[in-house]
Amino acid sequence: MSEQTQTPPQPLPTSSDSTLVSNSPVDLPPNPSNPSKIPIRPQKIRKLSSTPSSNGKTPETAVPSASTATSGAITVTKNRRKTAPKSSRVSPQIIKPLSADGEIDNALQHLRSVDPLLVSLIDTLPSPQFELHHSAFLALSKSILYQQLAYKAGTSIYTRFVSLCGGEDAVCPDIVLALSPQQLKQVGISGRKASYLHDLANKYKSGILSDETLVKMDDRSLFAMLSMVKGIGSWSVHMFMIFSLHRPDILPVSDLGVRKGVQLLYGLEELPRPSQMEQLCDKWKPYRSAGAWYMWRLVEGKGTPTIAAAPIDGGNAQALQQFPVEQETQQHQLQLLEPINGIENLGACIWSQ
């Protein structure tokens, strides 16, 4: 019998994650004593699971490397997660308020460059003014008091409420919590609004909210936190962000004044839906607050008749009472849209007083 020559063993291929994979069988030499037997294929080498074994220990993955396969040496390799270098990490962006020096000029220059239809408005109307008049707590309280009321009625109740507290500078969570629902009712505040005021004050008292933290929050977090307060919905949050915190890129898509202004600006046959507002005003970013300010002024100049509309439901708007109405609560109830009849009846007016 002739002496049979065997092929020396070849190193097994390895994958990029150090897992051995065998994709093709290794041909074994025929057995001369039993030629009818089929050559046996070696089993594939599988990646060992990192799941702990029955004895509670995690088995190690021991695999022969290509360089040590012939010598029988064993190398233990581990998968390591790649981390991005520190230099590539994105740091939080600092957003300047519109009341910061030079920001109004930057906003107007941007709006001129991206929307030619705004140029004539910017040229003929005074520049927007965003000045801080009240603390955040007082501004939010004022928003609650004006809900579902005409401007004059809201102003009357707000004046009596401030007097009850001892003046605007005295309005704070502790003072509001010290007032009973009966005391608030005596100045014209309903029981429901009294509960809203107390809920706001309690969230300040517990530390969930504060004037300092609200100023530092990003827009998304701020919207989420304020929406948890009973009686404060998306419209109130948007007005607060524009006129109290002077955030530059807020678009109140459900505000009837802004929607009517966009309709007039672009010559639309119908009021744009909130989704359409996002698309039409996307070019205004990152200064949509200034764009919204010009929409209010555009409607004021056109002398639009008093309008009241209910929440958008199936494309139909139902006539309602005069002035801003907001029913949205912690359970995200439907929001009512404010009417327009000159700047004195705009919902934004209560924030800029």
UniProtKB/TrEMBL annotation:
Q: Cite the entry's keywords alphabetically.
A: DNA damage, DNA repair
Give the Polar residues compositional bias ranges: 48-77
The record's section on InterPro entries has: Alkylbase_DNA_Glycosylase/TA, DNA_glycosylase, HhH-GPD_domain
Q: Which residues form a coiled coil?
A: none
Q: Name one GO biological process term.
A: base-excision repair, AP site formation
Q: Which segments constitute the HhH-GPD domain?
A: 145-300
- Per its UniProt record, what SUPFAM superfamilies does this chain match? DNA-glycosylase
> Which SMART domains does this one have?
ENDO3c
Pfam families, per the entry? HhH-GPD
Residues of the region (Disordered) are: 1-93
Output one GO MF annotation.
alkylated DNA binding
Q: Where is the composition biased (Low complexity)?
A: 1-19
Recorded GO CC terms: nucleus
CDD domains attached to this UniProt entry? ENDO3c (cd00056)
What family is reported? Belongs to the alkylbase DNA glycosidase AlkA family.
Question: What's the protein called, per UniProt?
Answer: HhH-GPD domain-containing protein
Q: Which organism is it from?
A: Solanum lycopersicum (Tomato)
